[in-house]
Design goal:
Helix content is about 85%, strand content about 0%. It is mainly α.
Amino acid sequence: MPQITNILVVNLEGNRNQFLYILFHMTFNFFYHFGRYVLLLKTAFSRPEKFSMYWKETMRQMDDIGVGSIVIIGIISVFIGAVTSVQFAYQLDGTLVPRWYIGYIVRDSAIIELAPTISCLVLAGKVGSNIAAEIGGMRQKEHIDAMEIMGVNTASYLVMPKIIAALIMIPLLVCLAAFISIMGGYIASVLGGLITHEEYLRGLRAFFTDYNVVMMIIKALVFAFILTSVSAYQGYYVKGGSIELGQASTQAVVYSDILILFADYVIALLLTQ
């Protein structure tokens, strides 16, 4: 029995030491990457060397991020509104709630939560992975090193135009997503025979609050900054070959999605009190 007790004590001590080591390693990695992320942003938002060069790059990024994402945002938004209206109509069966509440729920759900959050989660996969792959490919091919030798602030030139373009275009995409979601709800509920045209319009006009639109824009701005800056960080510091580049693109999407959901919760707490 004493031998068994000693073995158990040794195992418990080993497990505790291993747990403390993992906890210390995770904490160290968090502060290490967070510090590098902050320093990258500080360098990225320094004064541009040549405004015309940054202007052209910002316009190119606005086309890639905004115009290049309209189709996927439109398709997703139609089904967001359609599914919301159909499911809420199902919940209304056998209740005393008026049917025109379908339009009210579709409108507020799209504006407050579904349009900004779902759209930015999708854009994190499309835009975020593209940003990480683009910058990471330049790092691997030593394009970034060559630009630094020529005196170019690579962090500023590669990161700042992407963030500015995202802060301009993604809120516009989110507004478009909210409008298309409402149209999708109309198609599913009115053309689907769930309610009449007049009932849906009555729901859209009921209990409207301008503050919800402000909340949607704030979410879009925060999410846009997160998905572009985190993805740029993952690509800028990538090391190794094609496998590491693929891992960096995957990490860019995963970390961006997690941070977007966390920021969504924090914004909801702050703006709905």
